Amino acid sequence: MIIIGIAGGTGSGKTTVVRKIIDSLQPGEVVLLPQDSYYKDSSHVPAELRQQINFDHPDAFDWPLLLKHIQMLKTGKPIDQPVYYFQTCSRLKETIHIEPRPVIIIEGIMALWDKSLRDMMDLKLFVDADPDERLIRVIQRDVVERGRTAEAVMERYTRVLKPMHQQFIEPTKRFADLIIPEGGNNEIAIHILKMYIEKHLHHKVNL
Predict the structure, then answer these.
(1) 3-state SS string over 87-101?
(2) Model's pTM, two decimal places?
(3) If we measure between CA atoms, which residue out of 54, 70, 31, 91 comes closest to residue 169?
(4) DSSP state, 40?
(5) DSSP strand pairing (90-98 vs 79-85)
(6) Among residues of the chain, what percentage have pLDDT more than 70?
């Protein structure tokens, strides 16, 4: 089993990188754990206060549950991954049953922030992108997927996303084994990752 962490700012292209890695490997080889699924449940918080939650701060994540689930997968046990619904800022009752696979990918803005999590990884990646490009992608995503206005997204970017990125996300770049500029458009980096993963898996099979 190989565990890969993929971090980077909001809108940097992490999801595209993950999709291209998965598409390049054999079907059924990869388990994806989106860090977004491991936000703390806020259903107990009054609805009018939930929108004030800072989702770009380390305290927003349920680190113990994420670490527990990765350890379970490492030891061959299945997990029930939570499902987070952004429009209500709460976890759904439904979960996603996930069986262990040869490749585990942990993807999220702070995938490299927690040392205990980093220590479990075989490969650490940071997807880099120009701030203007990230802002455009955030606007496109939040307007379509999360029902926000462009004005609200830009205000939140200036007030929360940008300072949190500079304080918590950008510094984790120093922990990365590989920095991928241009996100999913970097075909050479994707090809190198594919070869690394296949070589790593082949080596473990032959041990």
Answers:
(1) CCCEEEEEEEEECCC
(2) 0.86
(3) 54
(4) P
(5) antiparallel
(6) 95
